[in-house]
Design a protein that fits this description.
CATH class of the largest domain: Mainly Alpha
Number of strands: 0
Largest sheet: none
Number of domains: 2
Radius of gyration: 20 Å
């Protein structure tokens, strides 16, 4: 259980499902695209291993803060020794980069290797330094979540260049826009949702961050203002979504678009509670709703057939 908590198994499952979701979504527009191939499975394994390694090293450098913020959930130094955490971190990263090296050789493209290697470096840098700085650490983690979607799209382009998923004639059946625009919209929303979630976590972890001399955003502007910024970030998605659906899509399929609609409504609930509830309540509820909103958005990729 300690190992599962350390690697954050639920988050890793969400990463894998996101990659499968993008793949499934793209496959419905061109019969050339296979949902499951060996290169794709290898890419999923590589991405999940990098994320797991990032979670491990983050906890490794966060032990002191976590003993204050969440003492019952500390794993490193208790159920898993510190040296074994480092060993696992390096094993996962080495396997991931080697897979990236193979895929880059297979498709004669260095881009995959560069992205995977950059992710390992950024996660280490984040854990050691960036997370202690205001906003920049939050932005880095949020950008890495976008790379999960981008890698899925990139591999399809490399595996099936004849399919040309960037073709503007390939139209989404619910939103009636080119499918690449839907994928890029998911990237933008993933960035905004994860950025909001990272700020909420910083609000929750202020006491522990003080102990390690971090200077996160809530410590600079206060928890209340940081949560108001979260409200602004999560408001962008539902406003953009409902304005476009109501005013530009006359025959919108509300049934197939239901997961996105529910995700947007979740964000509106977060905005409301930010201004009506106490800080502790906002943090507790918004963490759950942000995660649920992301899962609902992911569900769209699986059901829109």
């Amino acid at each position: 259980m300690g190992f599962i908590r350390l690697i954050r198994l639920f988050n890793l499952v969400i990463i894998a499902l996101t990659m499968f979701g993008v793949r499934l979504y793209l496959s419905q527009f061109n019969p050339e695209v296979e949902v499951v191939t060996l290169p794709f499975l290898l890419l999923v394994v590589s991405t999940v291993f990098i994320a797991a390694a990032g979670n491990i090293i983050n906890d490794y450098f966060d032990v002191r803060a976590d003993r204050i913020n969440r003492p019952k959930k500390v794993v490193i130094g208790r159920s898993i020794k510190r040296r074994w955490a480092i060993v696992l971190h390096w094993i996962f990263n080495i396997i991931a980069v080697l897979i990236g090296l193979y895929l880059s050789w297979l498709f004669k493209s260095v881009q995959l290797l560069l992205i995977l290697f950059a992710a390992t470096v950024l996660l280490w840098w984040y854990s050691v330094s960036l997370k202690k700085k205001p906003i920049i650490g939050n932005v880095v983690v949020s950008l890495l979540s976008v790379l999960v979607l981008y890698l899925s799209l990139l591999l399809v382009e490399l595996e099936f260049p004849i399919a040309n998923m960037l073709d503007v004639s390939l139209i989404d059946k619910v939103f009636f826009v080119p499918i690449f625009r839907v994928v890029f919209a998911f990237m933008i929303c993933a960035f905004m949702q994860n950025l909001a979630r990272e700020i909420v976590k910083d609000v929750e972890d202020v006491k522990g961050d003080l102990a390690i001399r971090a200077k996160t955003l809530p410590m600079l502007i206060g928890g209340k203002k940081a949560l108001q910024l979260v409200a602004l970030l999560v408001l962008i998605f539902p406003v953009y979504y409902f304005v476009n659906v109501v005013f530009t899509i006359s025959n919108f399929n509300w049934l197939k678009g239901m997961p996105i609609t529910l995700a947007a409504l979740m964000n509106l609930v977060i905005v409301i509670i930010v201004f009506v509830a106490k800080e502790e309540t906002v943090v507790r509820i918004s963490k759950v709703l942000l995660k649920l909103s992301m899962v609902l958005g992911l569900l769209y990729l699986f059901i829109v057939q």
